[in-house]
Amino acid sequence: MAETTNVQSKTNQYGYQSFSLGGFRFERDEYFAQINWPGGGHIVPVDKFLRALMRDVAWNFFYGTVNFDEVFGTTNHYGTVDVYAGLYNAGYRAQNKHHVETFKGDHTRALFQAMLEDWTNARFDPFAAPEETGTPFGAKNGDNMKAVRRQRVVAKRMVGLKDDTPLRSDDNGCPVNRQFRDVDQSEPEIHAEPGFENEVHAFNFFGYLSRSDVTWNPSVTAAVKDSLLCPTTEEFMLPIIHGNDRVEWFVQLSDEIHWDIQDRETGAPRARAVMKPGDVAAMPADIRHQGFSPKRAMLLVWENADSTLPDLYAQKKLKPNPVDF
Predict the structure, then answer these.
(1) pLDDT for 171-220, tens place per residue?
(2) Residue among 77, 98, 72 nearest 1 (CA)
């Protein structure tokens, strides 16, 4: 494992700090994030980079691989993390131009958090839809700590239960999104037997989702052991290309999402799926996927958080697809 060297240099002419992580060096200018490593370099539009970085930090590197684009990204080993360039790119691999270093996950996340906070200007929210946020471009112009320090919703049992994460409402700063104003906001009546008032619970799931202020950010709204229900609202495009290390189940609740599905290792195209309300899909454990949502859509993601799954799939003790037809 490479030694983590979290180095921040003086600010550059645009007012931004530069960061180093092992052999990687990160710099930004008015329009781009520039990444350099021994033997190579890469440039990414800074809006795309910040949206991907926001999710990598908030999700703690998520399940499997977070491809910022076709070249740069991270792979989660749950304690350590690979930071790579070209590792999952067939062209880079064919020319032996890929580069990867392994770091402690918490150190890497802390550096990425510092980069996110320094490189995000006032009024730009990397979690928001493009129409709902300001511009990330230009020289350093303040910050947006409220947005970049936002905590992902993670319910212990179910949102709205006593001592769990609260329901969303106007009163706690969660108004109905502009594209979900036709969603019924009435809540179900709950009539529990005496003594079970804290055990029986229900809430308006569509009403809760209609008040989400972020996009492409699955939150845990209900948990039963390793079974996590993670609904989310999607608009524009998923800022990362997620490489699975387990099967994910998708249930389309409203509107539609277009998915590009590729081989996880090479990026070779494998399928294109258009999901409409009522559609159910299982994303296999050996693919990467990126979604495109023309209008804000509701999507239910079911995640299995069993920590033994990545090894079982890697050793081919489980088939990558959960269903054969």
Answers:
(1) 999 999 999 999 999 999 999 999 998 889 999 999 999 999 999 999 99
(2) 77
Q: Distance (Å, rounded) from C-alpha 208 to C-alpha 211?
A: 6
Integer Cα distance of 250 and 299 in angstroms: 7
Q: Which amino acid is at 180?
A: F
Q: Is-contact 44 31, C-beta < 8 A?
A: no
DSSP string, 56-78: HHHTTT-SSEEESSSSEEEEE-S
Handedness of CA 193, 198, 199, 205 (dihedral sign): positive
pLDDT per residue as tens digits for the range 120-174: 999 999 999 999 999 999 999 999 999 999 988 999 999 999 899 999 999 999 9
Look-up: residue for tokens 């069993």?
Answer: 306
244 secondary structure, DSSP code: P
Distance, in Å, from the CA atom of 309 to the CA atom of 315, rounded to the nearest integer, reads: 10
The single residue listed with the structure tokens 């108004």 is 175
| pLDDT surpassing 70 at residue 3 | no
CA dihedral for 161, 253, 149, 61, sign (positive or negative): positive
SS3 category, 20? strand
DSSP labels, 80-94: EEEEEESTT-HHHHH
Provide the token pair at 59: 């999700």
Q: Cα 160 from chain centroid?
A: 24
Write down the pTM of the prediction.
0.95
List C-alpha distances in Å: 234 to 80, 289, 293. Answer: 29, 14, 6
Which two three-digit tokens encode residue 291? 């979604």
- Distance, in Å, from the CA atom of 132 to the CA atom of 214, rounded to the nearest integer, reads 9
User: What single-letter amino acid sits at 94?
Assistant: A
Other C-beta atoms lying within 10 Å of the C-beta of residue 193: 8
Cα–Cα distance for residue pair 119/26, rounded to 1 Å: 11
As beta bridge partners, residue 28 has: 33
Is the CA virtual torsion 279, 285, 287, 293 positive or negative?
A: positive
DSSP annotation of 316: T
Joined together, the tokens standing for residue 202 give 């229900």
